[in-house]
Specification:
mainly alpha, AhpD-like, 2 domains
Length: 179
């Protein structure tokens, strides 16, 4: 690594996560991009008004949408720690609508799927999101969806998958095996 790449990597590894995020492998080709992307990741994952069970729920929806195996497995563990029902996680994995813990979780699911699938949010769904999450929460949810789409696309484009010792849990999409 160049000194700039090493500095960015070390900063990420010493940050809130305690390690450099997986897409850093690719992002380091542009050290400034790596620096800014990982900082955005720290913000949207750890420093929003959304409780972890909602942000992790949204991240799982993104990982499933993109069939990003590494992202799915990493955030499945975090989702379980955040108290998300394992049955709901399995429903997302199989592209089915889960039962929701509350109205906020349902809003996150519906808004996430709407944006990822149709690239928009209907007015009534937007209002549901405002009632459940507030305006700040809605902005943060969209940021989470955008950031984790970047992560998923990076993982898929550069084939940053699972170690060969792990099997993909999601059907379809990239093989999930690291090269």
């Amino acid at each position: 690594m160049t000194p700039q790449q090493r500095s960015v990597y070390d900063e990420a590894a010493g940050g809130i996560r305690g390690h450099a995020p997986a897409p850093m492998i690719a992002w380091l080709q542009n050290a400034e991009l790596a620096h800014r992307a990982q900082k955005l990741g720290e913000l949207v994952r750890y420093q929003t008004s959304l409780p972890p069970y909602l942000s992790e729920f949204a991240i799982l929806v993104v990982a499933r949408h993109w069939t990003a195996h590494f992202e799915w497995q990493a955030h499945k563990k975090e989702a379980l720690k955040a108290g998300i029902n394992p049955a709901a996680i399995e429903m997302i994995a199989s592209r089915r609508r889960p039962d929701f813990a509350d109205d906020a979780q349902q809003a996150v699911f519906d808004i996430s799927n709407s944006l990822l699938e149709t690239k928009s949010i209907a007015d009534d769904l937007y209002q549901t999101g405002i009632r459940a999450l507030g305006e700040k929460g809605m902005v943060e949810l969209v940021a989470i969806l955008g950031y984790y789409s970047l992560v998923a696309m990076t993982l898929n484009a550069f084939e940053i998958g699972l170690p060969e010792s792990l099997q993909p849990e999601l059907l379809g999409g990239p093989s999930g095996n690291a090269k």
